[in-house]
Amino acid sequence: MLALVLVLALCCCSGAEEIKIGACIYRFNDAFMLRFRNAMAEESGNAGAVITMADGQDDQNTQDAQIDDFIANGVNVLIVNPVDRMSSQAIIDKAKAANIPVVFINREPTPEMLATYDKAYYIGAKAEESGTQSGQLIADYFKAHPEADKNHDGKIQFVLLRGQNGHQDMILRSKYSVEAIRDAGFEPVEVAGAIANWDKFEAMTIMNAFFMAIGAENIEAVIANNDEMALGAVEVLKANDYNTGNPEAYIPVVGVDANASALEEMKTGGLLGTVLNDAENQGTAAVRLAVALASGKDTGSIGYGITDGKYIWVPYRKVTRGE
Ligand code: BGC
């Protein structure tokens, strides 16, 4: 009780107004960004800040208008998950003109763009790390299960399901997952690949087509840039009596994110593994940094280290069955 009175008194005496955060999300209907939004809402509550989130509906023009509205309504700081990360410069210019800080999340502006404003930051995870780790999951499986090399040619014939075009996670996860397979001593062969835009249903359509065109016997692994697409592939495999418990009919599939639905699918053996994309820490860090910047507080005491004055990097981690 005493503590409560003290806290109230402190708030009243400092005369500090609540921090208003305007947060722009590229698309609400994205399983990974939902985790991000939940983390940001929770941390805003903890910090006593008011956060308003806008759904960009995967349209940069819509998001640009939302940014204008937030600025016109006097938010103290912006958190932006750009629809098109190459549009970040225009967003930085607007924030700079309004003299409010801007914290980018999940979709990385170029270093040149960030350098144009001292109050522009990026919080994310190193895309190449997740690529390497998902490739290692496949390579480790092949080492433990030589029979996974169905045609015994020492190569891994895989299908690659890619995220949205231009996204750093699509570019670097694709590149580094394949490199990790090579580094582990296997020759990677992409038998088929396509952009499925992070989306489960697009992945299902594509995987069905590949299945028909190539034949299951010629696919030794599926690498997906995220869990939703991996789960789409698993669904198609299951519909064709693969990955349902028969060791003779199994194709290892890996994703990235460690969403709850993927962890569930790992338990029943449909999905081999995934990589934790830590939305909870990224979202918490974004709000803490935003609040510190907006209130002029020390950014060194938010519990997350800032690299090169611009970045907070949250590590990825491999997740397999039983972990
Ligand atoms: C996640 C995807 C998500 C995308 C949105 C990626 O980091 O792995 O699941 O769809 O971000 O930008």
Total E-strand runs:
12
Largest sheet: 6 strands, parallel
Strand/helix succession = HEHEHEHEHEHEHEHEHEHEHEE
Number of helices: 11
Please identify the structural class as seen in this structure: alpha/beta
Short description:
The model is unreliable at 4-15 (pLDDT under 50). With 323 residues, the protein is of the alpha/beta class. It has helices spanning 2-14, 31-47, 60-72, 88-97, 111-114, 127-144, 168-183, 200-214, 227-239, 260-267, 279-294, and strands spanning 20-25, 50-55, 77-80, 102-105, 120-124, 155-162, 187-195, 221-224, 253-254, 273-276, 311-313, 317-320.
Task: Please explain how this structure is put together.
The chain has 323 residues and is of the alpha/beta class. It contains eleven helices and twelve strands. It has helices at residues 2-14, 31-47, 60-72, 88-97, 111-114, 127-144, 168-183, 200-214, 227-239, 260-267, 279-294; strands at residues 20-25, 50-55, 77-80, 102-105, 120-124, 155-162, 187-195, 221-224, 253-254, 273-276, 311-313, 317-320. The strands form three sheets. Strands 2-1-3-4-5-11 form a six-stranded parallel sheet, sandwiched between helices. It has a four-stranded parallel sheet with strand order 7-6-8-9. It has a two-stranded antiparallel sheet with strand order 10-12. Helix 2 links the parallel strand 1 (20-25) and strand 2. Helix 2 (31-47) packs across helix 11 and helix 6 (127-144) packs parallel to helix 7. The two termini are 42 Å apart. Beta-D-glucopyranose is lined by residues 26, 30, 32-33, 106-107, 167, 169, 198, 226, 256-257, 277.
